[in-house]
Amino acid sequence: MSADRINLLRTKVFDKSKWMQLPRDVVIGHDVIEQIPAVCEDLALGDSVLIVSGGQTRDIAGKKVEALLSGSYDVATFAANVGDPLEAIRRAEAAAAEAGFVIGVGGGRVIDTAKIASYNTDRHFISVPTAASHDGIASSRASVPTPEGNVSLAAEPPVAVVADTAIIASAPHRLLASGCADIIANYTAILDWELSHRLRGEPLSEYALTLSRMTAEILFKNADLIKPHSEKSAWIVTKALVSSGVAMSIAGSSRPGSGGEHKFSHALEQLAPGKGLHGEKCGIGAIITMYLHGGDWKAIRGSLRKIGAPTTPAEIGVDDETAVAALLAAKTIRPERFTILDMGLTSESARDLVKMLYRE
Ligand SMILES: [Zn+2]
Q1: Angle, nearest 10°, between helix axes 186-200 and 206-221?
Q2: Å from CA of 257 to ligand 1 middle
Q3: Is there a contact between 132 and 126 (Cβ–Cβ < 8 Å)?
Q4: Half-sphere CA count of 209, side-chain side, radius 13 A
Q5: 184 by DSSP, 3-state: which?
Q6: How far is ligand 1, taken at its centre, from the CA of residue 142, in Å?
Q7: Which amino acid positions bind NAD(+), per UniProt (predicted)?
Q8: Cα(262) to centroid(ligand 1), Å
Q9: Does residue 135 have a known ligand-binding role?
Q10: What's the CA-to-centroid distance between 207 and ligand 1, angstroms?
Q11: CATH 3.40.50.1970 spans which residues of the chain?
C-alpha cells in the first residue's frame, strides 16, 4: 500500500457506532394471546416469569396469560395500578428481580411499569397490549406522571410484542383513536426534527425519519377504515404503533415520533392534569405545530375527526387560556429537544392561533 493511501486511511477513520434494540418476535392478530407459550418457548428466556397487569386488564387478559403459562413456568403476578406510579415501579423492580423475565399485559401504565422495571433489573420484557392507545407498546422510553409533571425514563424495549386484535378491538374506541392521533403526530415530529437538523445540526436518521413518516402516511390513507370495535382497525393501528416504536429504536430516541406537539401535550399534563389522553393531546397540538410549519393543518384536523379523536382543547375539557399557556410553556419542557414551539411564539400569536385553529 502506498504511503498516501495509508495516510488517507489514518485521517478518515470511521468511528461511528450504534446499538439498535428491536423486537425479535412480533405476533399480531386474532386470538394470538394463545401463542404466548410458543413465543416464550421460542425466546427461551427462563423458567420463571413476572406478569404485570392492571385491575380490569388482568380480568380481560392478564389471568388468561397466567393460566397459559402456569403449567410450564413459575408464575408471579404484580398489580401496576395500585398506588403512586413511581412507588409501583420500585415494587415492580423488586418483583422482577426474582423472575427470569417480565410480561406486561395491559394499557399504558402497565406496559410502562413493566418495561421500566425490566430495564432497571436487566430482564427481558414481552409487551402484551390490551389497547392500542400510544406508541409506547414497542418503544424504549416510558413517560411516568409525577407531582412535578411527566418524566421520560429509559425502559426495556420489548423482545416480543403479542397484540391480540380481538382484545384490542374490545377496548373503548377512545383509546384506539388516541393511538391514531399519536401516530398522526409523527408528521409534525418529523418536521421538528428536520428543523432542528437544519438550524442546530442535530443528527438525523434518514431510516428512522422515513419509517416514521411512512407509518403516519399509511394510517392517514386508511383513516376511513378506522371504526369502533373493528378488529381490522385494531390490526392497522397496532401495526402502525409497532412500526413507530421501531423507528424510535432505529433513531435511539423518541425523536421520530415526538416533537413540539408532544411538548405541548406534556405542558398540558402539568397545567391541566388528567385532562385528555396522551395521544389526544398530541393530536390537538399537531394541528397548531403543522400550521406553524406552514403545512396542511386542515388535513391533520380532518383525519383526526375521521377517526373520532378530539381536535379542540374544549373537547377534552381544557379552556382556551390553558391551551395558550401550554403552547407558551412547551419550550420549558425538555428544552434540549428543539421544535417549532421554541422559535419565539408570542403570547399574542398563541392566543390568535388557539382562537383560529380550534374553532369547531
Ligand atoms: Zn406519543
Answers
A1: 150
A2: 7
A3: no
A4: 14
A5: helix
A6: 10
A7: 108-112, 130-133, 139
A8: 6
A9: yes
A10: 19
A11: 3-170
* CATH entry, 3-170, from 1.20.1300.10, 3.40.50.1970, 3.40.50.150, 3.40.640.10: 3.40.50.1970
User: Is the CB of residue 148 less than 8 Å from the CB of residue 273?
Assistant: no
Q: List where CATH 1.20.1090.10 sits in the chain.
A: 173-357
Superfamily of domain 173-357: Dehydroquinate synthase-like - alpha domain (1.20.1090.10)
Query: Could you read off the pLDDT of 27-74 as tens digits, one per residue?
Result: 999 999 999 999 999 999 999 999 999 999 999 999 999 999 999 999
Which stretch of DSSP H or E encloses residue 207?
helix 206-221
pTM: 0.92
143 alpha carbon – ligand 1 mean position (Å): 9
Q: How does pLDDT run across 184-223, given as a tens digit for each residue?
A: 999 999 999 999 999 999 999 999 999 999 999 999 999 9
| Distance of CA 76 from the midpoint of ligand 1 (Å) | 30
For residue 95, say whether it is annotated as part of any ligand binding site: no
- Report whether 216 belongs to an annotated binding site: no
